[in-house]
Design brief:
Length: 440
């Protein structure tokens, strides 16, 4: 694509001449194979978008003849710039989704279901001038969802808004090289940023340091790993814990401007874990306006048995009284059954939630069978300020025929046992700290 762009428009080459497409076409056999590997290494050494795309890239085609056939007889025969960004981007998204279905070896651990992303974006309503962040960006699904939403809702953007949307609107962190590469390429193919621009994807542990600047909106699905080997000692955190998801909740708050909005996918343990979990929930309810919780069904993520939720809140300025007045909980989990292949979650399955959310008129919300309101006083009166709230009768508990498959049940049991173990460890650490404290 860079070669075609240079042929059509001229100007400075995006890819250095020594590594460009023509340098591949001019070689054959073992010489081509060696040069291709050298080119990948050279391109991966930069810090721009190209550097992120090619970082640690390796030639997986072991037969020089097949590599030459692929380059000269297939790729070179297409005019890639003739396909618009939507077509190229959608094709690439399809490839990512396909690899996400390949189990533990695929990209599933980095892939948030697009139906869920679209629903979250539809209620968050990102604006053209905003700066949007995902501190665990994976393959870039939230960036693309926000980008499409803005373009569709604002068809007549000003030139400076178009420029901002194409470069500067999105910033992400990703700790692993593979998803960072997929994200960078995904953005490029959708017309966001350019190969020579500074990469908006920072390959690093987002939790390591406080953010350098605040954002208008945070959309994220942090990794579901149970805990870190070390806790994060940060002055801007309310509590110190090895629970990564609790740390991400605190980190998201620190990422937001005053008045900024967040939607964060969190596992159930964030809603009920004791110790640091209770401290963080109380501070979150007091310092932020936590207004909506979406209880997600199982069977929609590539990790079996995951019980997750989406927490929606707005950061507020310091105040003596709590900012959370009421929390509205939508239960999409009870008595719903989804699987990745036979019955996947679709955007239509979230239509009722989006309608109940009432993005622009939240003060006019009404309760329904799956949508209930809980006051701040009710929330803090619950044991450990638990936000793990449900009220619908679970029909599967009464009918063995409706039970999930054994492997899903086993994964859910393991999840519950791990949560219990985390609580026990937190209690043990608390008791140890109290007994070792100096006596006065």
């Amino acid at each position: 694509m860079a070669d075609e762009q240079h042929e059509m428009l001229g100007g400075e080459r995006i890819v250095p001449t020594a590594c460009n497409w023509r340098s591949l076409l001019n070689r054959s056999g073992a010489e081509l194979e060696a040069h291709y590997s050298d080119a990948l290494a050279a391109l991966g050494a930069g810090e721009d978008m190209l550097g992120v795309v090619f970082h640690k890239a390796r030639n997986r085609i072991q037969t020089p003849a097949k590599l030459e056939q692929l380059i000269k007889e297939f790729i070179d025969q297409h005019e890639w710039m003739s396909y618009d960004a939507d077509l190229k981007g959608d094709a690439y998204e399809g490839l990512i989704e396909k690899t996400a279905q390949e189990g533990a070896r695929g990209a599933g651990q980095y892939f948030t279901p697009r139906a869920l992303i679209n629903a979250i974006v539809d209620v968050m309503l990102p604006e053209p001038d905003q700066q949007i962040c995902d501190p665990a960006c994976g393959t870039g699904g939230f960036f693309l969802g926000a980008y499409r939403s803005i373009v569709e809702r604002f068809p007549h953007l000003e030139p400076d808004q178009v420029a901002h949307l194409r470069s500067g609107a999105f910033t992400g962190w990703e700790i692993a090289d593979l998803p960072a590469r997929l994200c960078a390429m995904n953005m490029l193919l959708h017309g966001i940023e350019s190969p020579e621009s500074d990469s908006p994807i920072i390959v690093d542990d987002a939790l390591r340091n406080p953010p350098g600047w605040p954002f208008d909106m945070v959309l994220t699905n942090p990794p579901f790993g149970r805990s870190s080997s070390d806790s994060y000692e940060r002055e801007d955190f309310w509590a110190t814990t090895r629970n990564k998801q609790l740390n991400f909740v605190q980190h998201v708050v620190s990422l937001l401007k005053i008045g900024g909005d967040a939607a964060v996918v969190v596992p159930d343990n964030v809603l009920f874990e004791a110790g640091a979990g209770e401290t963080i929930r109380r501070r979150l309810l007091h310092d932020c306006e936590v207004h909506t919780l979406l209880r997600l069904p199982t069977g929609i993520f590539y990790a079996q048995g995951v019980k997750a939720n989406v927490l929606f809140f707005r950061r507020r300025e310091g105040a003596e009284d709590p900012w959370t007045r009421e929390l509205w909980v939508y239960d999409l989990r009870t008595n719903t059954h989804f699987t990745l292949k036979q019955n996947p979650l679709t955007r239509a399955d979230l239509d009722d939630f989006v309608a109940c959310y009432r993005s622009e008129t939240r003060h006019k919300r009404t309760e329904s069978e799956r949508f209930k309101r809980y006051s701040y006083d009710e929330l803090v009166a619950r044991d450990k300020t638990s936000l793990d709230i449900f009220w619908l009768r679970d029909e599967s508990l009464e009918d063995a025929d409706n039970l999930p498959p054994p492997e899903v049940l086993a994964a859910e049991i393991a999840e519950d046992l791990q949560s219990a173990l985390t609580e026990i460890q937190a209690l043990a650490e608390t008791l140890s700290a109290s007994t070792s404290a100096p006596q006065t």
